[in-house]
Design brief:
Blueprint: H1 20-28, E1 34-38, H2 45-58, E2 62-67, H3 74-87, H4 108-122, E3 126-131, H5 139-150, E4 156-162, H6 171-175, E5 179-183, H7 184-187, H8 191-198, H9 204-214, H10 218-229, H11 245-258, H12 262-271, H13 279-286, H14 291-297, H15 319-329, H16 333-349, H17 353-362, H18 366-375, H19 381-384, H20 387-395, H21 399-404, H22 407-418, H23 422-435, H24 449-465, H25 472-481, H26 489-506, H27 509-525, H28 529-546, H29 549-566, H30 571-587, H31 591-597, H32 601-605, H33 612-629, H34 632-649, H35 654-668, H36 672-681, H37 684-691, H38 699-715, H39 719-736, H40 739-755, H41 759-776, H42 780-783, H43 790-799, H44 803-817, H45 819-822, H46 829-839, H47 844-851, H48 855-869, H49 874-883
Parallel strand pairs: 1-4, 1-5, 2-3, 3-4
Helix pairs in contact: 3-4, 3-5, 4-5, 10-11, 12-15, 13-16, 16-17, 17-18, 20-22, 22-23, 22-24, 23-24, 24-26, 25-26, 26-27, 26-28, 27-28, 28-29, 28-30, 29-30, 30-31, 30-33, 33-34, 33-35, 34-35, 35-36, 35-38, 37-38, 38-39, 38-40, 39-40, 40-41, 41-43, 41-44, 43-44, 46-48, 47-48, 48-49
């Protein structure tokens, strides 16, 4: 939840000290990139910027305000930057940072780039004011502030107020004259300014004494004016002793306290422990109902307790005032702890979890801290609020708290999972399981219902991230959780997403599709476009495996479109979309597109969250593209790196698949003997035989290991041995409707049958292959095997019964032999449909409607058509298609 109070400037009193000299300095600095107000507390930095803000607004400048604090991580900072600029009138909707459900688990520097892009697009002059910058401690947040300042467009001016620079890189900008620096000396009132502001408030007799004692220190002048307004200045002997700046602060504050009643003093002590205060919050923490009355009695201090803007009803004590009364409050530790505890509960109730935890920690109440974490949702906090809150919560958890509230141990586990520290995460999960007797005993809940549900949640995440299949018992438990009447949309969305992924991996596509669609509905019900985004990729993977190319393309494009629109900062989503689209490109033999999408995938996978489906798609497609584009050794080096990554993260499930990809690369590169040594050394042979029965395997494992082994056996002339594995794997693939696997295996079966002398059977199966290639557009399944199929394809082009199949066989033969590359490209049936519609002069939208596909699908096919015709536009493509004889 984004709080309005953080983006609200203090609403200043009419009689506040005016600083025309400094306001002119601020206005003069607008031509530079940055203004830095740097001075200790009490020098009026916030007051001055608030006055300047009013002047800028009057000139029509869009002004955004953000007060920073210690809880601001990189992700949180980016979200608040977008929030405050949006409130100032700058359209930030395209950044994807404005809604809880739209913020991803990793914001990063790209989030600030999105904010900068949106600000630059606005074109109007924008001033972004950042107050209390010295409170930022996160290296990530400081890095994002540096990025913000370094790349700010000409229409964006950044004004910073800080007691000291927390480490921002401003020296280079200062050297080139792009920093307007206003320090404590400049902020101090001159004698003429003091005379002007004290005129009429202090007698001529006392004027010199006040000037001497305040020494131009803004907060001291504010206190002097407040005392003068109450006729307390001389009564308390303010003018008797000249004071230094430090002593003046203490002296004036003490004199102010002396004029307060005891209830007012206690009130200020209590609320000084809060970042900001409203009447309702003050009543709650004080367990009283007189806060409004007390505040009315303190109106003469309004300059030191300015209200926040936007009618929030919140006040913020001046830092010096707050520090003094907080020091007094600490003299009563029991009362102080009680205020912190009640503030923590209030803030938790309004979903400000970070502030609530900060107060619980200040109260020294670990059990309250744990209870608030569980109240906020336990492990589901990361779905509701993002990883920043989960990480902040996890830092406060210790073993004593976990012993009392074992669900907190699962919070620690989810953080470790998200940080890819999977060994540690599993160990943490096992410790909680042991301590709670298999998640059956929870001291905080008699039935341990939430503990069991969250234990299942963590185990599911571990299995998915460790690339392990879920057992039938686990799947049954997840399914039972769907009928829990207490389950909310966020829990149902997670459970059904897990079920979608596990059924997808197992090749149980009908159930996977159903769970995916239901999970997407739950995500949208609680506003999580982010969760629904993942479902598009999961269901697209189902369509791809089924050979439904158009559906896969539409799902992938929809997911990528959402990613670009709502989460441009989330590199992980972009990576997933690129991997899946590259795999589809490769299947359709769009090698240029696949190569482009995979250019940085392996490097980015080192630090990205991923699961088995993504790893398998990325490494499988990359191994083949590297082999075609860079050669065998580069392909093997990439697989070595992937193997090291799998071992580092404990992804044992990936190792046989990577070994099979190595065998495949060696075999396809013409080194079958070397491939056989690798296969025998890595036990791929035995894994392939067992996986062909489908026991505990994913469809991708069965496909990868079986095809690698069958191809290897065919190249070694061991056709019968290869055919036995092929038949078993085909039975598995057909029973599950895995069209891609069936197509790949049928191609290899053709090779084995031909090798065994079963020519008629091989030719008949080649007809099935041609029919499936025509349906799916998966050309690569045939082209991958090279010249071994050339003669049979040529014969199929002459003797197959159906003309369409003969034509498909001829096209494949031409592509295999290289003639298509030199002369006539092979177009998929859908590409031919698009070309025909294009020839009629139709636009993308009309073509999409006529063919029953999306506009994105039409554009996808156009890209392939342009690549195959080596053209750069529609007209050129049509001319080239006619030259090739594709169009008449």
């Amino acid at each position: 939840m984004l709080l309005k109070t953080k983006i609200s400037a203090p609403r200043q009193a009419v009689a506040l000290l005016s600083r025309p000299r400094l306001l002119e300095c601020l206005s003069a600095g607008r031509s530079r990139r940055v203004t830095l107000l740097e001075a200790p507390a009490g020098f009026g930095k916030t007051t001055l910027l608030a006055q300047w803000r009013e002047l800028l607004l009057a000139e029509g400048v869009q002004v955004a305000w953000l007060t920073l604090d210690v809880d601001d991580s990189g992700e949180r900072l980016a979200a608040y930057l977008a929030f405050t600029l949006q409130e100032a009138g700058v359209d930030m909707s395209a950044t994807g940072l404005l809604k809880d459900g739209q913020r991803g688990s990793a914001a990063g520097t790209l989030a600030v780039h999105a904010v900068l892009h949106a600000a630059a697009r606005a074109r109007q002059e924008i001033c972004l004011i950042l107050d209390d910058v010295e409170r930022v401690t996160s290296a990530d947040a400081l890095g994002q502030l540096d990025t913000l300042i370094r790349y700010a467009a000409e229409n964006l001016h950044v004004a910073l107020a800080a007691r000291a620079n927390p480490g921002l890189s401003l020296s280079h900008l200062a050297l080139i004259g792009q920093v307007s620096h206003i320090d404590a000396g400049s902020l101090r009132f001159t004698q003429a300014e003091m005379n002007a502001c004290l005129q009429g408030a202090v007698s001529a007799h006392d004027l010199g004494g006040v000037r001497e004692q305040t020494q131009g220190w803004p907060v001291a002048l504010q206190i002097s004016l407040a005392l003068a307004a109450q006729e307390l200045l001389r009564e308390h002997g303010v003018l008797r002793n000249p004071l230094s700046q430090t002593v003046a602060a203490k002296y004036f504050t003490e004199e102010l306290v002396r004029g307060l009643t005891e209830p007012q003093r206690e009130f200020l002590c209590d609320v000084s422990l809060l970042d900001s205060v409203s009447v309702e919050l003050a009543d709650h923490v004080r367990e009283a109902h007189d806060s409004a009355q007390i505040l009315r009695g303190l109106e003469y201090l309004s300059a030191l307790m300015p209200p926040l803007e936007e009618a929030t009803g919140h006040l913020r004590l001046h830092p010096m005032l707050r520090e003094h009364f907080a020091m007094l409050a600490e003299r009563q530790p029991a009362r102080c702890a009680r205020v912190h505890r009640r503030a923590a509960q209030w803030l938790a109730d309004v979903q400000d979890l970070l502030a609530a935890l900060r107060h619980a920690k200040a109260a020294g109440d670990k059990m309250l801290t744990g209870a608030l974490i569980l109240q906020a949702g336990g492990v589901s906090i990361w779905i509701r609020h993002g990883m920043q809150e989960v990480i902040a919560a996890q830092r406060l958890i210790d073993e004593e708290m976990i012993a009392a509230m074992p669900r907190l141990g699962l919070i620690r586990a989810i953080v470790l999972i998200k940080q890819s520290r999977l060994h540690e995460a599993r160990a943490q999960y096992d410790r909680v399981a042991t301590a709670t007797r298999g998640f059956s005993q929870d001291p905080t809940e008699p039935g341990a219902t939430a503990l069991r549900r969250e234990g299942l949640f963590i185990l599911s995440m571990l299995m998915i991230y460790c690339c392990l299949p879920l057992t039938d018992a686990h799947l049954s438990s997840l399914a039972q959780g769907l009928h829990d009447p207490a389950a909310e949309d966020v829990e149902l969305a997670h459970h059904k997403t897990v079920l979608c992924v596990t059924h997808l991996q197992s090749g149980l596509f009908a159930a996977a599709w159903r769970y995916g669609e239901e999970a997407a509905a739950h995500c949208l019900a609680f506003g999580s476009i982010y969760g629904a985004n993942f479902i598009d990729f999961h269901t697209g993977s189902i369509a791809m495996a089924r050979g439904d190319t158009q559906e896969a393309l539409q799902r992938y494009e929809r997911g990528r479109r959402k990613s670009r629109r709502h989460f441009p900062h989330d590199a992980g989503l972009g990576l997933i979309g690129n991997v899946l689209m590259a795999e589809l490109d490769l299947e359709c033999n769009a090698l240029g597109n696949a190569k482009r999408r995979l250019s940085q995938v392996i490097t980015r996978l080192r630090d990205a969250e991923a699961w088995f489906e993504i790893y398998a798609a990325a490494y499988g497609a990359s191994a083949e593209v590297y082999l075609l584009d860079r050669g065998l050794e580069e392909s093997l080096a990439m697989l070595d790196e992937a193997h090291a990554h799998a071992q580092r993260l404990g992804l044992a499930k990936l190792v046989p698949l990577l070994d099979a990809l190595r065998v495949a690369s060696l075999t396809l590169a013409g080194e079958p003997d070397r491939a056989l040594r690798v296969a025998e050394r890595s036990a791929t042979r035995f894994a392939a035989a067992g996986l062909a029965e489908g026991e505990g395997a994913s469809w991708r494992e069965v496909e990868c290991l079986a095809t690698a082994w069958v191809r290897l056996m065919a190249r070694h002339g061991r056709y019968q041995e290869g055919m036995r594995v092929c038949d078993a794997a085909l039975a598995y693939g057909r029973s599950r409707g895995v069209a891609r696997m069936v197509l790949r295996l049928n191609v290899l079966a053709v090779m084995c049958q031909e090798g065994m002398g079963e020519h008629a059977e091989a030719l008949e199966r080649m007809g099935e292959v041609c029919a499936e290639v025509a349906r799916t557009g998966y050309l690569r399944a045939v082209l991958r095997e090279g010249a071994a199929l050339g003669a049979l394809l040529a014969e199929a082009g002459r003797v197959l019964a159906e003309e369409a199949l003969r034509r498909q066989a001829c096209d494949l033969h031409a592509l295999l032999t290289g003639e298509a590359v030199r002369q006539r490209p092979v177009f998929s049936p859908r590409e031919l449909d698009v070309l025909q519609q294009l020839d009629r002069g139709l636009k993308d939208k009309v073509i999409a409607r006529r063919l029953g596909v999306s506009e994105h699908a039409v554009r996808f096919h156009l890209k392939n058509i342009y690549a195959k015709t080596r053209s750069h536009g529609r007209l050129e493509a049509l001319v080239r298609a006619r030259e090739l004889g594709v169009l008449r």
